[in-house]
Amino acid sequence: MLARTLLKTTAVRGIALRCRSAVWARSVLRPSVGRTCGYATHAAHLTADTYPTLVRDARYKKLGEEDIAFFRGILSEQEILQAGEGEDLALYNEDWMRKYRGQSKLVLRPKSTQQVAAIIRYCNEQRLAVVPQGGNTGLVGGSVPVFDEIVLSLAQLNKVRDFDPVSGILKCDAGVILENADSYLMERGYLFPLDLGAKGSCHVGGLVATNAGGLRLLRYGSLHGSVLGLEVVLPNGEVLNSMDALRKDNTGFDLKQLFIGSEGTIGVITGVSILCPPRPTAFNVCFLALENYARVQEVFIKAKKELGEILSAFEFMDFNSQYIAGQHLKGVAHPFSEKYPFYVLIETAGSNKEHDDLKLEQFLEGAMEEGLVSDGALAQGETEVRNLWQWREMIPEASASEGGVYKYDVSLPLKDMHSLVDAVNERLTAQNLSDTEDASKPVVCALGYGHFGDGNLHLNVAVREYTKQVEAALEPFVYEFVASKHGSISAEHGLGFQKKNYISYSKSPQEIKMIKDIKHHYDPNAILNPYKYV
Amino acid sequence: MLARTLLKTTAVRGIALRCRSAVWARSVLRPSVGRTCGYATHAAHLTADTYPTLVRDARYKKLGEEDIAFFRGILSEQEILQAGEGEDLALYNEDWMRKYRGQSKLVLRPKSTQQVAAIIRYCNEQRLAVVPQGGNTGLVGGSVPVFDEIVLSLAQLNKVRDFDPVSGILKCDAGVILENADSYLMERGYLFPLDLGAKGSCHVGGLVATNAGGLRLLRYGSLHGSVLGLEVVLPNGEVLNSMDALRKDNTGFDLKQLFIGSEGTIGVITGVSILCPPRPTAFNVCFLALENYARVQEVFIKAKKELGEILSAFEFMDFNSQYIAGQHLKGVAHPFSEKYPFYVLIETAGSNKEHDDLKLEQFLEGAMEEGLVSDGALAQGETEVRNLWQWREMIPEASASEGGVYKYDVSLPLKDMHSLVDAVNERLTAQNLSDTEDASKPVVCALGYGHFGDGNLHLNVAVREYTKQVEAALEPFVYEFVASKHGSISAEHGLGFQKKNYISYSKSPQEIKMIKDIKHHYDPNAILNPYKYV
Fold first, then answer.
1. Residue B196 is part of which domain span?
2. Which segments constitute the FAD-binding PCMH-type domain (chains A, B) (predicted)?
3. Does A133 map to a domain?
4. Which residue is closest to B190 within chain A, CA to CA?
5. pTM score of the predicted model
């Protein structure tokens, strides 16, 4: 019976599927999540108050008038924002989630790499601590000050430098906003090889500094492969330039790799050279219901095999994630009226709509016949594409809508991926902390979703209120669980401030020592992004 | 008229094209080039004789009986090869091209990572220099000793450790031969994301140590993106282990990246974790003739756009390369009877033969109608696929068949790629050194071919004899030309021994200093692969 439901769906929708959609413009189809839809409306507590045992490092000089005078010598008035001069620096001091708030009194907004170099050289000589800041869309407090560090905003380094339409290599300033870079590329038939919710605010340089993953990693791979060159201001003010982007260059250690994911701790990225793929002209989205976790894995294997080169996203969601999204999207009908333990959203992107439609239809029919899929819906047209995507995209916001959310971004071997969510739910229930209906319990539920193809689980614990009991139930339990499965406690969000004390769950003492050695080697005065990373 | 030739070809061959080829088995279709078909049959001169100004570094201890005794304590008799004990160490002392020959008296062939660690720890303590060696198929003398360094062969670390059919992640010892790894994956529906001529001999660990590129880079990207984890024995004997391969892990600097392309200078790779894509089930090959270099670029743009996700190779060849291959393949008819200045071989690999055939046919018809292509041939069946590929694959061997060859492997911006070949030919002609017909001239011609999609040109100068005049005409001219275009003097072959003195053409003094800093940091006693790299 279920099989017939899907087959009918595809048959009916088959005609509409053949409409050509000329442009793969994700920004049109899915709302860009930026600062304005943040999860909290109150100002964040000062990080220094939240963590009273954390003390300002006395090695750092306190900002003086002579420092301001120096910066006035190299920057124009508009490029210097000072607290107490009618300027509100909250946007620079607070993170996007409003979990962390620093106390910086000075924001510098240089317009050139030379200005960045002059600033950093001076700060290094004077022992002034600096936080490099891109779009400030990070989720681990990595891009805001903790105490009185100077904020170095890259927002005004925002020009495309060069684009080669033959090779697809884009060279741009670090402060170019992702959506702008992608729009520029779209006009030229190319695509930025990475996409994520914050595309309307986040910077290309910030993406590289945090080694962002996002939605296209399954298809286009990690930034370690697609970034071809970087321009980086080192802590001593020297400029490391490998912007002569070549796809292949085997002359010595690939130095730029260290800066990809370094979170602003050993250099300030000012320019990026990146290889961009041709923009697909055809895309499809389908939404599937599955009866257990084993099916998710089986459908993934089948999708990789049969959709192969056109598979562009394979997102998975558990029942709780759809329950929470449903509470938030009241009045919007879920793709399926019945309940299922797991759901999968598959997106294809290719160069020939008819071929892609046929591949997807054959894949879906086979999956139904083999009993892998319990129900399915195939989008016809942009409205339906948007409707299906929202059941994946709304989960983060919905998770916080009952009061708050504890968020964990982890990597786990695929076979173990959902067992963490089950374990957390069992633990919270056993401790009498969780109930989806009973409003007297602090926790609504734990839910899981994420980029299945990348082994990247987003575990959200939706709460009605933050309590010490819930926190004690979750931590270090979650980190210990991830470590026991040889996973990573940060798949794509980075360490930042939030996770700096937990790295030992993912890295050995030897690796931590090697990481600290590199930090010390490049930034002996530790002026860059202090109190974070390791 | 030309247009009709191609259209007829495709129409006639269209039927055969639709035959399904079940397996993409390159090893069947293209002969694997291994040591046995080396370009030279004489034994190489001792490197120490060829470079008389190069002196053995007196810091290194000379091998003594007590050292042999130590190694006998950790290795079995079969794992120790000593010169003068009835053992011929030529295979380990000489490179594949027979350009370099070291004088090692000892080859160690450990079977476990622990044995490698014990060896390296001891050598570090005793200041014994060591050359890690994989399949010894490198082209720059990086894997053979220069003086009396101990050869540490990874050939017996040759087990697949684990494969996850859901994620496609392969974990294996460094000494697994590429072809064996790929056969293992083929049986499971997966593909090693890299292919090259030496696949029958080269090791997975060696590929990573040299950051090899090869034929699939256009489609599957660089090893910096696909290698997920490494096991590396550091110069102090510690084992760095990041084999818990996760597709995403943002917890600290990505340490493994430094070892990708480090050519055995800061650690010995003993294990590799790599992400493998599903194996395509359909493939096509076509061979095109083009009237000028601008057309090559235009056809590339069109192929990327229209073949997009199924494009798996875009190899280009100039007229001279086909002339030289024709001399070598006497009696074999070239795909085209007329002569053209440029040729392109395009390969597609996808999951649906009918779709791929149609895409390729439409692409070819369009290219003909637009006048981009002067003539074309489309392979029908495996024999024709092999026949077309041989006109690309035979070039290296053919280049040396008149007596010898000077080989350069460079990266250049696409627009400048062939101008190097033109410049070299003009220079050799102007100096009266070159003539394809006149056997009294030392040079036959310079020719260019390579992985166009990667900006990787192989410049070969086919010679009748090696002379100092020719060498003086070529070097440093070639390196200066590449530097003037901001290219790389080593795209994929690495620096090794051959290019260590030329790195300054591709890297700034600051970058070279940073590279040396890293070498010194990890290997303060410089025991690993001395006299090479930088």
1. 160-275
2. 100-279
3. yes
4. A305
5. 0.91
